[in-house]
Amino acid sequence: MTSQEAPPPTMSSSSPPPTHVLLVSAPLQGHVNPLLVLGRRLASAGLLVTFTTAPHAGLKLKHRHGEVDGGVGRGALRFEHLRGEELWAPDDPRYRVADDVARHLDDAAPAALAGLIRRQADAGRPVSCVVANAFAPWALRAARATGVPGAMLWTQSCAVLSLYYHYFHSLAAFPSKEACPDASVDLIPGLPTLAAGDLPALIHAPEEFVWRQALLSDIASLRGTVSWVLVNTFDELEHAAIEALGAHLPVVFPVGPLFETENEGGGVDECTAWLDARPPRSVVFVAFGSLVKLGRDEMAEVAAGLASTGRPFLWVVRDDSGDLLPPGTAASSGGNGGGKVVPWCEQRRVLLHRAVGCFVTHCGWNSTTEALAAGVPVVTYPAWSDQRTNAAFLVDVCGVGVRLPTPPTRDDLRQCVEAAMRGTLDLDGEGMRARAEGWKAKASAAVAEDGSSYRATWDFVDAVSSLSIGAGNSGN
Question: Whole-prediction pTM value?
Answer without folding.
Answer: 0.91
